[in-house]
Write a structure and sequence with these properties.
Length: 143
């Protein structure tokens, strides 16, 4: 079973449309909801890896496959991958991974991908490279 959850805090000073734009620049969600924790949190979800095709394309356009692979592998567990993006950079269509929530002053965008074989997702999203050229181009894993 595939489940992708993307969350982002909506701080009082933020424009909701810009936060949604930051998410949708890299993720095509199927469901959207809000929860109030400390701040209001926007939660976007999907049940297909196809929802990450914009992210897949952006990694190649920005030529950051090696960095992305490092962050994706760092956040990998037995059946999931978690990573964070800088929210303000995402709002203008740029990918910037963060290690710590404090690196994104208004809170990061957190991606959590549940998939039975996370290594296959990483190999599809961010394959190893040689001098910046991907060593393989795997097709999208089956959902």
């Amino acid at each position: 079973m595939t489940k992708i959850t993307v969350t982002a805090e909506l701080r009082p000073s933020e424009n909701e449309a810009k936060v949604l734009l930051a998410i949708s620049n890299f993720f095509d969600f199927e469901y959207l909801r809000r929860e109030k924790i400390q701040y209001e949190v926007i939660i976007a979800e999907s049940k297909t890896l196809r929802s990450l095709e914009k992210f897949h394309k952006a990694l190649r356009e920005e030529r950051i496959l090696d960095v992305a692979r490092k962050y994706l592998r760092k956040g990998m567990s037995d059946d999931s991958i978690t990573f964070m993006l800088h929210k303000q950079a995402a709002a203008i269509g740029r990918l910037s991974f963060v290690d710590d929530e404090k690196e994104s002053p208004l809170g990061p965008i957190v991606f959590h991908i549940e998939y039975r074989k996370p290594e296959e997702v990483i190999d599809w999203l961010a394959p190893r490279t040689s001098k910046g050229v991907p060593l393989w181009n795997n097709s999208i894993p089956d959902d």
